[in-house]
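ok so I'm stuck.
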Amino acid sequence: MNYEKLKDAEKMLKEANKLTKLSFARWSADWAEATPLYEQAGLAFKLAKETAKAKEAFEKAAMGQERLLSPWQAAKHMEAAGGLAKELGNWTEVADFYKRACELYAESGKPQPGADALARGARALEDAVPDEAVRLYLDSCAILEEEDKEQLAFDTYRAATNLYLKLQRCMWLWSRFEDAANMLLRWGLAADKCKAIQSQCKAYLSAIITYLYAQDLKQAEQCHVDCTQIDVFLQSEQNACAEKLLQAYREADPEEIKYVVSKSSTIQHLDHMIIRLAKQLPTGDMKAIASASGNIQDNELDVNNCIC
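replied:
not stuck anymore, here's the structure
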């Protein structure tokens, strides 16, 4: 962008601010005239890599569209501001902008795009503020579940599960394994409602593998018992694989566990993060795990087996 166009963008932003600022001469803001100026200025600043000014312009453009009773357009501008806030490293603003975008989509009668906005916000926050990213993923899933659109949440279930597992990459926390397994079970329930049998069975096997990786045979067995109450899983190849793994664990046979994992085409069709866990099985002291029925000794796990 040449200097003249950047100068024009500055001029548009200045004029729009003037139109929305109250004074003795102006008793009410003229958002109808100011909003297009903010939009044009935002685009121009973005092209010019003037990120902070672009963010300011899009945020004000969103305010304008909201006052003009156009929540859909306001939401679009809020998302644009959120993306620019990420470039600036303003993580609190990133979360706030995407949450507000979600609210505006809901006001326009479109909750699904609102859920998508939260998922995009979560992806933007994953590396810098993972706990907040998890919350956005969960809120996104909840919206789609409330709208009976669980199938549209499959990618979000996957992203949340992967993030939970990443969070314990260099700090071994039982709670994160439990969170990941619970998310997988939630995904399985959603898949059941959608009649997505393969996704459902994969989610249940993935949850069992997650518990085994966390050295909790007891919880893995309980999870298996619960899941086999569902006929489609009971009769599935994923259940057959789970039974082989659990039996090898009961017998404290690490070579059999490795054999099952290496020869199982079923495991190879799971998500990448679960395959990584499976390939590292078994973790911990096999005899202790088997004899204790999965109770982790002194709540301590083998940090050397961390998936760094």
